[in-house]
Design goal:
With about 375 residues, this protein is of the alpha/beta class. It has two domains: about 45-230, Rossmann fold, CATH 3.40.50.970; about 240-370, 3-Layer(aba) Sandwich (Rossmann fold). About 35% of the residues lie in helices and about 20% in strands. The chain has helices at about 10-20, 55-65, 90-95, 105-120, 135-145, 145-150, 180-185, 200-210, 225, 260-275, 290-300, 315-330, 350-355, 360-370; strands at about 50, 70-75, 100, 125, 160-165, 190-195, 215-220, 230, 245, 250-255, 280-285, 285-290, 305-310, 340. A seven-stranded mixed sheet has the order 3-2-4-5-7-6-12. A five-stranded mixed sheet has the order 9-11-10-13-14, with helices on both faces. The longest helix has 16 residues, at about 260-275. Mean pLDDT is about 90; it is low at about 1-30.
Length: about 375
């Protein structure tokens, strides 16, 4: 399907399925965006247990509550386990003073969380969907992010972690599918972390909870049950602000985060089979501050780079990555940096398969940079 058929106009997107049905043999309801490939845990982390992604998060929060008497968890419906069951059983185990529900008020949740963190509590707050984090935007970017700086380090809310399900889920439509990481990446004082699977989720969440700065932890909701791995049962952390080279390659660097890493891994396999192209896949894991050194080293080797994310193209964090690559690797580039992203429209419902940066769109980007 030619890229020229797409437009930043919502009217054009509304017309897209009629055009697409002429050249596609499948219908949107039959599409599966991603197939999860389990990863092997580091043996040094000790014994493992099979968990899906939400269970690995529950396990991480269980450890946080058990090892830190000041730790609390709260948000809408978290006392009974939350809509995605990420906190199931924790209220019964630790009591309603440490795991409790809040009113349906994201601004209030964020403000209360900042206050508790500044008073010394290890605070884990849940926004039920990342799409509804925007009422809390002022509290997070004007208060949480600036509290240490504006007080000359007399006060801080560094023990604050905001968890939130984000990204596409297959049927979420406008208000349950968005990826708002770029909004917060523009805010000095906040860290933004996005895991790709159960092992990563547990290690990164424990690191985020114990980090001395406020962290936004976005969880790919489509992987909550689909992603299953052998997860270490002991307490372990994975480093923030350190990218992970998921697959080694020599011809093209593929960069992403969250669910998109699974898409890029499939794309890399497809490129190897169909084109004989070797792709290096890098998971940023932390969006801010991001690990530019690992990305630069890879692109210096491959000479080609593609950044992919679900959020819209314009102003997406992929633009920051592409700009850095262009500046730091200019004389090593064999082709312009490509971005494969969501379109500049509200997130659609029945047209979601045409919105997503799936493996076919990413594969076309690989062909483009290799043939440039």
């Amino acid at each position: 399907m030619a890229a020229a058929k797409f437009s930043c106009s919502w009217r054009a997107l509304a017309r897209l399925p009629q055009t697409a049905q002429k050249c596609c043999v499948w219908q949107p309801k039959n599409v599966r965006y991603v197939s999860y490939k389990p990863e092997i845990p580091d043996e040094s982390f000790g014994p493992t247990k099979k968990m899906n992604l939400f269970q690995s998060l529950t396990d991480a929060m269980d450890i946080a509550l058990a090892t830190d008497s000041t730790a609390v968890i709260f948000g809408e419906d978290v006392a009974f386990g939350g809509v995605f069951r990420c906190t199931v059983g924790l209220a019964d185990k630790y009591g309603k003073d440490r795991v409790f529900n809040t009113p349906l008020c994201e601004q209030g949740i964020a403000g209360f969380a900042i206050g508790m963190a500044s008073a010394g509590a290890t605070t884990i707050a849940e926004m039920q969907f990342a799409d509804y984090i925007f009422p809390a935007f002022d509290q997070l970017v004007n208060e949480a992010a600036k509290y240490r700086y504006r007080s000359g380090d007399l006060f801080n809310c560094g023990k604050l972690t905001i968890r939130s399900p984000f990204g596409a889920v297959g049927h979420g439509a406008l208000y349950h599918s968005q990826s708002p990481e770029a909004y917060f990446a523009h805010t000095p004082g906040l860290k933004v972390v996005i895991p790709r699977g159960p092992i990563q989720s547990k290690g990164l969440l424990l690191a985020a909870i114990r980090d001395p700065d406020p962290v936004l932890f976005f969880e790919p909701k489509i992987l909550y049950r689909q992603a299953v791995e052998e997860v270490p049962v002991e307490d372990f952390e994975l480093p923030l602000s350190k990218a992970d080279v998921v697959e080694q390659g020599s011809d093209v660097t593929l960069i992403g985060w969250g669910t998109q890493i699974q898409v890029l891994r499939e794309t890399a396999e497809l490129a190897r089979e169909k084109l004989g192209v070797s792709c290096e896949v890098i998971d940023l894991r932390t969006i801010v501050p991001w690990d530019d050194a690992t990305v630069i080293e890879s692109v210096m080797k491959t000479g080609r780079a593609i950044v992919a994310h679900e959020a819209p193209l314009t102003g997406g964090f992929g633009a920051e990555v592409a700009s850095t690559i262009q500046k730091r690797c200019f004389l090593h580039l064999e082709a312009p940096v490509e971005r494969v992203c969501g379109w500049d429209t509200p997130f659609p419902h029945v047209y979601e398969p045409f919105y997503m940066p799936d493996k076919l769109r990413c594969f076309e980007a690989i062909k483009s940079v290799v043939e440039f």
